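If you are new to this repository, start here. Below is one unmodified record pulled from the training split, so you can see the exact layout before writing a loader.
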Amino acid sequence: MRTKVNQTELSNWEEVIPHRDEVHLLGLEIFKNYLVLSERKDGLRAIRIKNMSSGADSYIDFEEKTYSAYISTNEEYDTNILRYGYSSMLTPSSVYDYNMETKEKTLLKQTEVIGKGYDKDLYDAETVYATSRDGEKIPIYLVFRKDMRVNKPQPLLLYSYGSYGSTSDPYFSSTRLSLLDRGFIYALTNVRGSQIFGRKSYEDGKLLKKKNTFYDFIDAGKYLVNERYTSPDQLFCSGGSAGGLLISAVINMKPDLWKGAISAVPFVDVVTTMLDPSIPLTSNEWDEWGDPREKEYYDYMMYKAEISPEYGYQISLGDMALDAGDMTEIFFAKDGRKLGGRDGMEERKRHDKRCFKFVFPLTFSLGETSYTANDYQEFRDAMKASYEETGEKQKPEFVFPIQIQFGRGDEVETVTINSDDEL
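And here is the target side for that same chain:
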């Protein structure tokens, strides 16, 4: 909308850009003769230029099928030059000047790809759209090496985040090239919980609609299988933090769809965390996940798929990591001492990284009752009841002996640990 500075009453407002359901308006830049809009449409972030004198209206043509562009710093008001940033699955991060009158682009800077050299012509990218089980569009950005793209399923890594309204636009990654050069397809998707189609996408993927995030990711994976980009024995998934929650959920909801998964620093103990207002970020996070002290949100959070015994959990002495219920967190120092909680975090970081893989089933006790990893809901119900009664959280104890595997690579040894054993 626009109006004169001395006539700001609503009756004087004039519509300049009408609302469009299919477009998410991200920002704008005002010049003397031009209005520049940053928009996301069909899952792609574009730049629209409107000539306020002639009425001409157009988008910058980036000549790629999957890309992301944003308005950069523009200090001059009376100019026809727009500075913008650009990246794609094929093009490293770049800065351009664009002549809004002649439509001429000038490359000012592009991030250098260090190493053996990068030949853009060896690779290709595309944007495809899956359909969710309830009819919503799910954009998927793909990149692959042309000479390794065959007319049959091949290894594919699918990534997403899906929370807090954070949207992952397609971008270039030099570290990704190693994967592509070995025949992988890399796929990035934005599921509900992001803002890929505006605020509605976010609202439909939080609180009591959070399952949509998981369903969308599973449906994206099914699409890639059905369209023969990959197959269940070659499909891998990846996500970190809240994206790690997404991955932890989907491998349990649909375990036969994935060959492997990377659930990096996953936020997977939502119920216990949201039940503890003493944690600094908890009350702020209730707007995202809900407050489990309210029955409606607690019951929704306690939905679970059966944990698949096929999936192991790896924990490193050098970094803090958690499993799907925080129920298999256990660290040992080299002198046999058990390191747990925040007090042990710094000490764990000082140790050499050594991978500990727990072998199911593990057993835990809470009071006089024992639980296995598959008793997730019953365990949480007992935790909640205890918290409501005492106002304090009980800490579960491991029931020994525990069988674990440790080592690196193929050098793995299986041992049995008793409560008083040294490692």
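Two things worth knowing about this chain: DSSP finds nine helices and 23 strands in the chain. The radius of gyration is 26 Å.
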